[in-house]
Queue: 2 jobs
Job 1
Amino acid sequence: MTKPPIRKEIRFLLNGESVALDDVRPGDMLLDFLRIRRSLTGTKEGCAEGDCGACTVLVGRLGADDTLTYESVNACIRFLGSLDGCHVVTVEHLKRADGSLHPVQQALVDHHGSQCGFCTPGFVMSLYALWMNDPDADDRAIETALQGNLCRCTGYESIMRAARAISCYGSPDDDPLAGERATVAHALRMMGDGARVEIDSADGRIVVPADADDLARVLEAEPEATIVSGATDAGLWVTKFMRDVSPVVFTGHMDGLKTVHTHGNMLSIGAGVSYTRARGVFAAHIPQLGDLIERIGGEQIRNMGTIGGNIANGSPIGDMPPPLIALGATVTLRKHHNRRSIPLEDFFIDYGRQDRAPGEFVESVSVPLPPRDAQFAVYKISKRRDEDITAVLGAFFLRLDGDNRVQQIHIAYGGMAATPKRARAVEAALAGQSWTMHTVEEALDAYASDFQPISDMRASADYRMLVARNLLKRFFMETTSGLAGGKAA
Amino acid sequence: MGKHEQPDLTAATIKGGVATQQRHDSAHKHVTGEAVYIDDITEPRGCLHAYLGLSTVTHGRVRGIDAEPALKMPGVVAVLTGTDVPGVNDISPTGRNDEPIFADRVVQFYGQPVFAVVAESRDIARRACAKVKVHYEELPAIVDYADTGETPKLVCDPLTLQRGDVAKALEGAPRRLSGEMRIGGQDHFYLEGHIALAIPGEDGDMFVHSSTQHPSEVQHMVAHALGVPNHAVTVDVRRMGGGFGGKETQSNLFASVAAIAARRTGRAVKIRPDRDDDMTATGKRHDFLVGYDVGFDEDGNILGVDFTYAARCGFSADLSGPVTDRALFHCDNAYFWPAVKAVSAPLYTNTVSATAFRGFGGPQGMVGAERVIEEVAFATGLDPLEVRRKNFYGEPGRDVTPYHQTVEDNVIARIVDELEASSDYQARRKAIRAENAKGGVIRRGIALTPVKFGISFTATHFNQAGALVHVYTDGSVHLNHGGTEMGQGLYVKVAQIVAEEFQIDIDQVKITATTTGKVPNTSATAASSGSDLNGMAAQAAARTIRERLADFAAEFYELPRDQIAFLPNRVRIGNQEIPFAELVKQAYVARVQLSATGFYKTPGIHWDRDSGKGRPFYYFAYGASVSEVSVDTLTGEYRVERSDILHETGRSLNPAIDLGQVEGGFIQGMGWLTTEELVWDGKGRLRTHAPSTYKIPLASDRPRIFNVALADWSENREETIHKSKAVGEPPFMLGMSVFHALSDAVASVADYEVCPRLDAPATPERVLMAIERLSGRARRHGA
């Protein structure tokens, strides 16, 4: 492992132009760069926390397999320093040279899809990303692609009408981003010099390690550095809490942390794998998790946020840890050349405290695939169905023996304690018992010894407790009578 | 819009006349990102940025402000407090002097502006705010209704509406019940937050770009704050990124601070709060506690109702007087109350001052009325729709409102009949009841609710408007009026009206930014009145010029006046036709004035608040919706399966725009009553101040099936602009059908024997807790 060369600037493409910046500060965000430094004011700030989508832009990147992929992201919480080697596409790039509108734009105009117009560029970019991947998207796919875009005027119906009609106005094959694909890929390839980027300023230090080994090296030198992967939480530390994140180390670009593989019944997912990618991976192996991911954030957040970040962050309301704990996942931490694996459950010590030493980083998570005879379910409860933070999330893993007795049960919750937490007393009450509504009802009392949830703006303690119990009932019904009448939401 | 096209001189109709589907005038600019909002304007040389410092206590005396740590930061230019206001430190929109720009002696809510930092960049100003130390002596705070005590402090005078002897009616009624309902507030969540850019000029002048629905008021407030005459201040707004009432008075703060800072520094100053500060420091829809006592008979006929509408108004009056008045004006919704009394209580609380929001108290008034209907339906076992029908306004004797205005344009029965049939309400209701009887986990519910909404500002003098129209020598037209564009399509509608008047294509009409320099003393673009008032004023201005042109043509061509006719893009003069532009040029050469102002005031309205009598509304707008929901009885989660709407907009000026208002209004109203929950903690701090915690509807929250229709037979019986009706606010209240459908689904767990008495918003939590309450009751009764 030789030390990579050091570069003192970041380089990326912005629409049709190449950009090199040596004056980036740790907390600089892409949105301010676009609006203030480049006067590209089509991209709007609505919330500065990745929830409204008015700032949606596309970011294209060459993957490990050298293919160029564009994804929608929230420019408001996308760190400028994390864009090395990317192609940033803003709404200004869509209008054609002859002044005519792009199919997405024309569809919105013709279907009256804008009223005040402030959210519109963000909708244009989200629909653009969808249309390039799925030109015949159905309503569900459109709604999913728009989970991260808020509109307060239209009630969305006119936007949906426009979205269904985009392909009447053109084909993605004729799109500029398709036409210039080879040129862009070449330009990005040329930028990839294998260097580590280090930028120092009066406001602090940015490091973009060359690869995972280099990350280990950087963290050894700067063990207290802020590690930023998808930035979907760390971005808010800057935009909302004005926290100083320097020295900051960006890891989102590292293909070495984006590996996915299976060994026997063990699925291993690199810490840098985005929700979007994980959704596909899980859909093939553990579909319940694929479905869950569809309800985490909006599309932009899922393109940015990572499985590793959701774990390392340690939030009591992170959505991935409870089901991963119920499945018996282990997390691998790395410091320099040393790796250790611990049960994910043990990683969460207390509110805001995880078992991660200075200089250590989360490298991957390993999930045992549920055996054929196991039953597994995850339920997320939130005020609004999509793009909302969990009030209560319950994950259930069950194996019954031949006599319908509980052989193995893991129950884990989010939103019920200061950390993602197993319902040990409930599990104990069920272990070895017959799997019947009677034993389930008997076990409900045990919740009081497992959890004392809090009341906050998302839910009251009483509601959390009631729902937590009811989710066990739901799990029972689903395991015994098929769909138990289905679900409303 | 691309290159300028020559008008078609042979067309049978003009492009973009009234009653046609015209796209929003800025649609192309919206989708390309080229539409300029205030934060997109190229900043003037040396532009500074201001940021507000907000109170960190809920109620307290300001004992001292230490700005030194901020002033020492590089890039910080000034720290402003109440003593730095050159004029009057007040922006009370009703002249009560109860709303300081900067709280200088006492802070009255958590998040109240106390000071502002002015700096070279917004980032520096924002960071510097955190360095300013304010010392408070905390005082006891009133946060919720429970804290207001026996004799609560009010922010303005309450109103009483009364007709008939309600006490007697209640005593004599065969059945009687009473109850209470909490109705939550709502954040506007305009996507573009508040913003102002003030540019100082010569002679103490100030030019202000303000994202406001009320440029004239911003002008007056800025002048008041600067201590200069109104003529020294010009306020300009091309467009807002959403308003919904949230930019009627709330823009005053930001414009005033920017102007004060600009005056102090001699440089342009921009101010734009972060979303969290915007939501914390600016007003929202009032939340209400509605009390009701209703007398009725076994057939569901309501005989008398006694209402109290207590509103949490916050620390100042703002618009709480007219808002709580409008709540009372809508305590009837579409129903005739034979005897009625309604009293408002505009309560002082240590919370942000509640303000205007689409519907302006009307929605809360109507939700109270619908709760009464629902209670009577459960008490009598009748279908709520039957109870609604029985109590609709009707023939003389059953057509007078609680404020003694006769309802002359009632079409609610026709709307409801048509919607009942088109939505197949009865069969679906029967099927839902049968399915729910099987006792599954998922329950369905259905409800049909009507809307009748009064159109006019209840303060009669606001019902006036002005416009300014110029015709240039090439026949192109410059249009300006007092209304503002916040996305509702007002600008395009008024342009259609002017195009229609001149019989020229709409692309010959230039829409220009609203500015106090062109049309003075305007009313807020509010109360759904935008096109009613400004459309009439612009029509009057255009008509004046058209008449001058016709007079000129008659004289010039020596023909009788009736030989002059305005045809599409041309004018018929006797037996020849000449282009409109040619006549204009001839008129110019003949020294005919080609510029005119127009003015309009709504006729026939009056209101005497002291007696509670009058005709405050010019007319009413009607609509109805029916929604079906499914509810998960284990979690309280729900989904809107289907909604059908029939709404009337008179002879619509622009059916495409009106449809957008109806769809958008419904979803916004649904959000208010379902997932949009404002949560204040015990210390009076708002905990839901960003989209991460405050949940407005998403695309996936739309009804799975959504059928929306405008009543094609509708026509305003009053002489409104082209017989159209206002459409801004009325559709908002169509969202009530979702709330009542949820209630219907919840009621199924106790076999429809108990009124669920859901409070709003009906979050999944409230729904589940209501289910628990009802099923617990059903269990106790051995059901």
Job 2
Amino acid sequence: MAVSAEPAAPEAGTGGPAPRPPRSGRWRTTLAFWYFVGPFLAGLMIFTFIPVLWSAYLSFFEARNTVTPAAEDYVGFDNYVRMFQDDAFRDSLVTFTVFAAFVVPLTFASSLGLALMLNRVRLARAFFRSVFFLPFACSYVVASLVWKMSIFNGVRYGMANSILDLFGLEDVPWLFDPSPPWYWLVIVTLRLWIQCGFYMILFIAALQQIPEQLYEAAYVDGAKPGRQTFWHITLPQLRFSAVAVLMLILIAAYQAFDEFINLIGNQAYARPPLVYLYYTSLGTQQDLGLGSAGALILALIIAIVTLAQGKILGFGKTEER
Amino acid sequence: MSPMVTLKERKNPVGYRPGAASKGARAANFAVLSVLAVIFLIPFYLIVRNALATDAEITAPGWMWFSSSPAWENISKLFSDPAVPMARSLLNSAVVAVLTTVGTLFLCATAGYGLARIPYRHANKVFYLVLATLMIPSAVTFVPSFVMVSSLGWISDFRGLIIPTLFNGFLTFLCRQFFLGFPRELEEAARMDGLGYWGAFWRIVVPNSSSFLAAIAVITFVTSWNSFLWPLVIARSPDSWTVQVALSTFLTAQTINISQLFMAAAVAILPLIFVFLFLQRFLVQGVAQTGLKG
């Protein structure tokens, strides 16, 4: 996975620290290590490890509006059972799956496509790169605002409906009608717009690592530049970064929250897991026990899918270090 | 020297390059890119158009390209509206983003350096502990983190907005990988001259890693400015809102009119547009670096 311009320094292979200092200086080394790493590690403990453990503890309690439930509120696995039997939670997993099924392949293909086109163009290349990357400056909140209030607002003066008008078509209430599910178009295009440029940069960096000689050799062997070199040189050479990008897109999709809550809010027809958990644990119910159980279930699902995807795509095997 | 990914332009118009297709193919490629560029810019155009129009113009039938008389007074209206804590939320975002960037950079760079270079016996065990946190998807931890922050009494408080976000395992991992590739000779020379690890780090390593550090600083700043879920969870009272939370509230509650909403959006993205214009090189390097090491 080392995509560094240079082969990594030899010690990067093992991650092993440098030769041992003489015994007398060892306490000094220990001390030095801890004032470099200590503050960070302490913070990691307080704000990651302890909260996760605490949350696991809460998930076995009826903990509404409190983070220190009394002993008699112990409910065993009830919260987990409730979550699994909860149609809304299961629906949110379905919503996520549909979302990922659209977003992951589309983002992957579009960012790779942009990178390939950008790699070919000679005129105004830096300009195009900036333009495609610029949406990354926009937050999901700002983009949701534009999508919801100006492009897909479902009324006459909205941009999408103005274009439909040009062709004499009926206005579409994009976000506000669950059937037909036009809201997916709104949600997916928004994420594509923000993210494509980001992954495009990753692909450009990777494309520039491909040795020229491969194309030369292919040319000498009579391969046609274009489709043949793409399938037999470019794509295989991009394998490491393609797998990495795919994982990044999927992980980002799991955490989708901002655009859903701003575009749709707490509507059952398009409510991904994080939005549901947000309303469960921080809404009027403040059911932190149930929310914790949901968060842990989700974390487990993400871990399993990520590992499975890594296995299928050979992430572990291709790891260089 | 450095493992930084450089995005240098390639220029060799030789026959074997996939880009050296026929003139027609090149023109088609350029045309497609141009059309896409226009599409990508549409949302920005809409923000500017709506921010400088009146609501009557926006909602009028028939498409308006630009308001015939730009409504610059929307800016002063936005900032003088007492129901809209716009100035306050911009200030909050600036404080949060700057302190988060400085704090994250300090903590992650020192920790990354310690993990990479100081030959402590248990350094690897500590490193695996950091790696383990990368497995925990950050957004899923918002419930537990909220529990922690509320028991510390940091709700609607800068401490709650900033401190829990500083300990970024991923950036520490990146810094460690970067410092592993840093030329050891430079530090050894500094150590010969009597500097300790701390002195060598600040006087030799940091000044010679400035473009790497700048890259991750810019990324951290952009991410912090645009972050929404954590501030939404923590900033409960309006005077602790960041600009994203404020915008989202106006959007969902529809408490302000459309042109004001878009003026607020324009004001919210302006700082980042500047970051993009002036620091794009670092940003691009940062993305190339952060993404592919993941």
